[in-house]
Amino acid sequence: MTTLATVITGASSGIGEALAHLFAPEQQTLVLVARRKERLDALAKELNSKHGIKVHVITQDLQEIGAAANLMNSIANLNLTVDTLVNNAGFGISAPFAKSDGAKTSAMMQLNMVALTELTHMALPAMLERRHGRIMNIASVAAFQACPYFAVYAATKAYVLSFTEALAAEVTDRGILVTAVCPGSTDTGFHEVANTKGSLVDKISESPEMVADEAYKALNNGKVVVVTGLFNKPLPVINRLIPRKTMTWAVGKMMGR
Ligand SMILES: NC(=O)c1ccc[n+]([C@@H]2O[C@H](COP(=O)([O-])OP(=O)(O)OC[C@H]3O[C@@H](n4cnc5c(N)ncnc54)[C@H](OP(=O)(O)O)[C@@H]3O)[C@@H](O)[C@H]2O)c1
Fold first, then answer.
1. Which atom of ligand 1 is nearest to the CA of 91?
2. 196 CA to middle of ligand 1, Å?
3. Which is it for strands 55-59 and 80-87: parallel, antiparallel or unpaired?
4. What percentage of the chain carries pLDDT values higher than 90?
């Protein structure tokens, strides 16, 4: 018999790490996934000693083609079935599109969209069979409008939001909870990687713990989309009221290039 597990991608830092602390008290076996093994091992040890749960660490570069299948094989080899899938791993690139690194941009699309979609596709059949499961996909407030100088990143998050809302409509009445989380700027390693450290967006960051807390509650309450942070909540409505061209111009100005 297999054991049910909660799988969190990108658990080695930031929002993913904060989410691992929230899922751990549920007492379900945890699988922590990312590339930085030492950080995952340290977190696994901490959660195991605090909550007495089994925590597995899988190091997997999810931007590699075929990575999702490799990860699902590793999970199956541990005799685990995915009961909760948290697709959190992701990164951004802030640059004028013409000057951005093409290979890195493709890797970002592979991680933010393809790995997330493939993992969901592979985990879903067992959830549907059991009529039980939870899927949390981390999008962004960048999903609601075009973002000059963050163009491809924002587009990947628009994909995550659209995909997740559609999936929720397909499976919610079959026992599966599906949530898209749209955080605003959050104080994590993200800004270092995205080259937005010290920018206006970085300065208005919220804590990863606050984002994780709202995300976790939204998932368990069956909310399909959650925009985290009080000041971010009006964004979807503002986006509907202001012409797209004006919004795109304003965001371009804010990105400060
Ligand atoms: N911070 C923000 O302002 C913000 C706002 C909105 C949405 N988000 C989204 O929130 C999610 C989490 O990001 P974060 O803010 O917590 O940033 P973070 O601290 O940089 O965390 C990113 C996580 O993704 C993992 N990751 C990155 N590339 C990976 C790869 N190729 N394979 C496997 N794992 C990979 C990282 O682990 P390793 O480096 O160890 O692999 C890390 O655990 C992302 O999807 C991000 O787009 C962030």
1. 47
2. 14
3. unpaired
4. 91
Beginning with the edge strand found earlier in the chain, give each strand of the sheet holding 133-138 in spatial order: 55-59, 29-34, 3-9, 80-87, 133-138, 176-182, 225-227
Supply the residue whose CA is at minimum distance from atom 42 of ligand 1.
10
> Rounded mean pLDDT of 230-248?
94
Rg of the chain over all Cα atoms, to the nearest angstrom? 18
Best substitution site from 38, 70, 186 to test ligand 1's pocket, by max atoms within 8 Å of Cβ? 186
- Per-residue pLDDT of 145-185, as tens digits, reads 999 999 999 999 999 999 999 999 999 999 999 999 999 99
What are the extents of the domains in the chain? Answer: 3-254
153 as an active site residue: the answer is yes
pLDDT for residue 58 is more than 90: yes
Task: List the structure tokens of 106.
Answer: 């493709």
Rounded distance from Cα 22 to ligand 1 centre (Å):
17
What would the CATH number be for the domain defined by 3-254? 3.40.50.720
In this structure, the residue with its CA closest to atom 45 of ligand 1 is: 90
Q: Give 193-221 pLDDT, tens digit per residue.
A: 888 777 777 778 899 999 999 999 999 99
**pLDDT tens-digit readout, 93-146:** 999 999 999 999 999 999 999 999 999 999 999 999 999 999 999 999 999 999
Q: Long-range pairs for 45-54 at CB < 8 Å and ≥24 separation?
A: 47/20, 47/21, 50/24, 51/24, 51/25, 51/27, 52/27, 53/24, 53/27, 53/28, 53/29, 54/3, 54/29, 54/30
Q: Pocket of ligand 1, candidates 160, 190, 195: which has the most ligand atoms within 8 Å of its Cβ, to mutate?
A: 190
